[in-house]
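Section 3.1 - Work completed
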Amino acid sequence: MKNFYLFLLILIFFLFQYSVLGVFLKSGQIPNLFVALTVSLAVISGFEKSLGWVILSGFWLDVGSFWIIGSGSLALVIILWLIDKIKTIAEFRSKRHWFAILLFLTAGFSSVLFDALLELIFKTENFFFTDINSVHLFSSSGTDYILKTIWTALLVIPLYFLVRRILENSKMILPKE
């Protein structure tokens, strides 16, 4: 049942990121919910247990974007791997304030890293496929980009507790029998 809830959460994120958030925020300010989910899954479950969910999240991210399918998945898997290699944040779970600060910083750094990895992927595609139009999505400065990064980092904290609850208790939403 927890797999169903996690799948449903990913679909809700897809719909929410590509439809609802566009109504309230400018396109450059929309937080990347899939990066926040990747950070949460990396801290909760580690690389091996989260890999399939991160690839599925990357697929939905790619479907909603105009880049080649697999680019977002690759960037998310690299972020998952890097967070799994660090593992320092997991040691601070008992100290709630430090854990929240480290989770916030990890999500902010992962959001910037995700954008940098996509830029690198786009430049590589442009190098090998010269007939593709040059794509430059992200400016590394500006108020919109800073707000996007802050929103992503802020959303990872409640998302972490939601995903942890889904993974711990598969009967989270169903009434008790």
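Second construct:
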Amino acid sequence: MTREKDFQNFLVLLSTIAVGTPQRDKIDEDVIESYYVLLEDMPFDIVKINTINAVHKNGWFPMINEIRGESTNQLEEKAREEYAYIEQILKRFWFDELPESSLNTIERKLEEAGKSYLFPTLNLYGMEILSGENPSATRSQIVKILQIEGKRREQDQLAGPEQKRIEETNKMLEGIGKAG
């Protein structure tokens, strides 16, 4: 999560949920700040969904591990899907006698599918995936890559508006420099 905007959203989310739970008197801004610090490495959307699901499921204010647990399960499920996708791509486009050409084709196919972030995993663990030696270790690497990709996307989303402001400021400064 990102500091200012997400903290405000997080504060609203948890404050609203706290009102409807039996623990409402014990949940103040300090508790919410502690939750935020412990969950800030997760995307806000996942925190929001997992928090709401935990309240619906249990009927009380969720604990950190309940919010995090859902996220871990979601990432592992996504890693299984991505592993299966990589396996499918390898079986279809990998040719032992043309390794470099195969890698180029596979990289292009991943880009076309919007999954170019999987290419480093494929490059490092492709032979292991083909051999089927240790799929759980490879999936754990995919979980790490999905976490990194989630953070990168979050940063890209934030960089968009900030970058626009920087460009606008630079244009204004250029205009002032030309006028003077």
